[in-house]
Amino acid sequence: MTLKRSGVLSWDEYFMAVALLSAGRSKDPNTQVGACVANSQNRIVGVGYNGFPRGCSDDELPWAREGTYLDTKYPYVCHAEVNAILNSITRDLRGCRIYVGLFPCNECTKVIIQAGISEIVYLSDKYRDTDSVRAAKIMLDKSYTGYRQFIPARRLVTLDFQLD
Predict the structure, then answer these.
(1) Helices then strands (H, E): number in the chain?
(2) How many C-beta neighbours within 10 Å does residue 156 have?
(3) In terms of C-beta density within 10 A (0-12 exposed, 13-18 middle, 19 or more buried), how is residue 89 classed?
(4) CA distances (Å), 55 to each of 111, 134, 138, 157, in order?
């Protein structure tokens, strides 16, 4: 009798890995964030990463983090969470989970709540002391939208493009 393979990715590991892989598409030189939306049947319904809006050249707009507002990336970049929601294959995201590398800002949190997503699973909360994340958590608590930190059981997932 042949036994099934062990070490299979959990659903949380799988969806977080997709979010992190998606972050690799970001051209932001400082912060690469990806997001993956999964429904209650564990199907991916949306994926996104942070970048400029469609049609806006990433060679012509600034990637700077400091300077006058219009000379930084902040007024132009679409966050991964918003892109994942806009890229979703369905408009009904009620009951879905969103997996993100970073805890969402207050602006993304508004969109997540409005979309009906029921849970945020995040890897890092490094901006937890900012007003943006504090506001996000206030809204999540008041809307009864769940959030939890993903604690990986393994440090590394390896992709091998060489199939034998």
Answers:
(1) 4, 5
(2) 5
(3) exposed
(4) 22, 33, 34, 33
Q: How many C-beta atoms surround the C-beta of residue 21 within 10 A?
A: 15
Torsion 98-100-103-105 (CA) sign: negative
Q: How many angstroms separate the CA atoms of 132 and 90, rounded?
A: 28
Residues in the chain: 164
Catalytic residues: 81
Tell me whether residue 104 is exposed, middle or buried, using C-beta atoms within 10 angstroms of its C-beta: 0 to 12, 13 to 18, 19 or more: buried
Q: Which of 12, 30, 9 is nearest to 99 (CA)?
A: 12
Neighbours of 132 (CB within 10 A): 14
Tell me the whole-structure pTM to 2 decimals. 0.94
- Give the N- to C-terminal CA distance of the chain in Å, as an integer: 24
Residue-wise pLDDT tens digits, 75-112: 999 999 999 999 999 999 999 999 999 999 999 999 99
